[in-house]
Write the structure tokens for this entry.
Amino acid sequence: MKLNKSLFSSSEFIVLLGLLAIGAFFAFTSPVFLTKFNLLNILLQSSIQGIIAIGMTFVILTAGIDLSVGSVVALSGVIMALMLHAGVPVWLVILLNLVFGVAIGVFHGFSITKIGMAPFIVTLATMAMARGLTMVLSDGKTIFDFPASFEFFGAGTIGPISVAVIIFLLYAFLAEVLLRSTVLGRNIYAVGSNPKAAALSGIRTQWILYFVYIVSGISCAIAGLVLTGRLGAAMPTAATGYELDAIAAVIIGGASLMGGKGTIVGTIIGVLLIGVINNGMNLLNVPPFWQSFLKGAVIFLAVMIDSLKNRQVEV
Amino acid sequence: MKTSPILETVNLTKVFPGVIALDDVSLKLFPGEVLGLVGENGAGKSTLMKLIGGVYTPSKGQIFYQGEETHFRTPKDALDAGISIVYQELNLIPHLSVAENIFINRLPRRSGFVDWRKLYADTRRILEGSGMEGIDPRAIVADLPIGVKQSVEIAKALSYDARIILFDEPTSSLTGPEIENLFAVIRRLQERGIGIIYVSHHLDEIFEITDRIHILRDGKTVAVMPTAEADEETVVSRMVGRDIQNIYYKGEHTPAEVALEASGISDHFLKGVNFKVRRSEVVGIYGLLGSGRTELLKALIGARPIKGGEVKLNGRKVRFKHPHDAIKNGVIYSSEDRKGENLFFGNPIWKNITYLAIQVGRFVKSGFTQVKEERAAASEYAKRLNVKAPSIDVDVYNLSGGNQQKVCLAKALINDPDVILLDEPTRGIDVGAKLEIYRLIADLAEQGKAVVFVSSELPEIIGCTDRVYTMSEGRVTAELLGDDINEENVLKYCLEIGAAEGATS
């Protein structure tokens, strides 16, 4: 097969090389970087971002965008915290949290397909509304003190591996299989690649759009569960700015904002790249202001390389 | 001939990795001459145009312009020297005025501000000099009909003091009167001594407007002849490289029972359209762009909501709410707009061919696609329709128009539909591919399929169909059968604007 060729020329492969190069740099400059503890830590740090970015991948594949993810993660955390304090059993809290994620997705899907609003605007509005509700519900205060069975999903471990990492990898695997091997997955790519042709080919494009925003909503709910469990607290300012990291990870992973192009594997490499940079800069004691700048610069470089490569192919 | 050539290419060759796109082509263009450049897709027409227009640089050979050898590095170099290309897809900015578009990167300025008075005066001067005085320099381009937009594009070329204008398929989206207008403008340019290269798949236009015809095949010049001495059969055989006896083809089939029937179809555009197609029948729909032919087909498959009327499939009343329903019931529509509405660019041939099939559960087991079966079927259909590509993994974006169209047809046919609605299946493709599609349509009718064939080319409608509907302004204006299907009738009825209500049986 043409596996080799497509493997080495794929966006994923190039970003993977970048990831290894940056990893090698940190391995030489920091003695701690390559320790098992630190590597597991990077994976743990990346798991929440990763879960969000998986949902974002679905949305971006249809040429959409979901700016609300950070706020929705925070709102999910506060809602669960309040329910737990009101004595709702943990299993029901988790279930209702997922329902909340679906509801957010349905709201976005409805606004986009039935009303015809632009995804950017709808999710920008939700971003503000969800953050506002988070503040109102929590009264601006951090909420603590949850049952251990709840915190297990963020802070627990199975053997040496944290539950958060397991949830992340399992979720990524499911998403990859769905996108790669099911009709639904193929239709998501089709809608992103050419919505008109998709509809005329018999694809119910509106359902597909509902579906991807629901996946994004569910991803936020799962991320909210893991984050709140890990911190042992629901903070109204949690997950601020996560939407940008998620979008950056998806694009670094080779997806196109124009839709129809991208993979879960790519997204995960993108998430890990951002995770490694964050971790390595902390190890090297880079001042926080410079960290932000350097992270931005790396994102710029990663996307620039991909764009240059595609430009050569195009013309 | 007249004087010395304004443009001459000598042994021009362009090699791309793996392909010789243009091979040793020598061409002459004289001032005031219209040179027709014809050839199948992939014959090298676009490459030649792009070499002359400075988009590509030659691998070998020379270009002489006004007697001197030139080396254009960019389209801007060529433009500044007086060589303009008017592309098939217009490059205007819709929200700006005619004048702004013409002088887009050279707006006249006075102390830093745009000198509007001079801008409009300059624009008017250019428009008047070329028979386009009817165009208002202040009009917003988006509001103009497509034919006028094209005139603006030509005016833009003239604003650079063009000595040579290359037209690349300029009529692909124009209606009859607009084409006449374009020809009038071209003749004016000719009188002014401008050299014109005219590329088109429409041989009737080539015969009407050109002085000489330059024929390319496989990157080489195969013939150059004065138009007056050429006829359609000769030109087509030289293009295709073999003798063509009968271009159009009806095949052997006898229409049977009615497969799809629509009565009183109305929406905000369609006005009570009656229509039917039988098994083993090829029905033609002829009408100008905007006559409602595409709208009718889309209404039939549920891609457009209808307000009134009903659709019957095999005598049973149906109501398709989404193309999905139509596909499930064996009614398939293939859009004329290959890039915009039919194919998924960036995806390989095989995925394009099976996209429609997997929607109705073919090659699928409990939601999972069976890639092996899919590829095998796609491969078979690509072969059956003679798609020319190194493998089914090639991105459809890289195929020629004719091969893209064959992929569209493979996609439509892989489900073995009963009713096939083909919207302009021959638009913008080369003669060889057209012939194959005419044969395919006849074959489908022979297999008992009901085929609807929409076209804006009269000869193929007349030559390939059993029955013809003419449409105009959202109505069916006539239904023609047998000997009544002739050029005169079809044209008369399709131009019948606001004709008496649908004169059909």
In short: Residues 101 and 217 of chain A are 4 Å apart (CA to CA). Residues 1-5 of chain A have pLDDT under 50 and may be disordered. Residues 205-231 of chain A form the longest helix (27 residues).
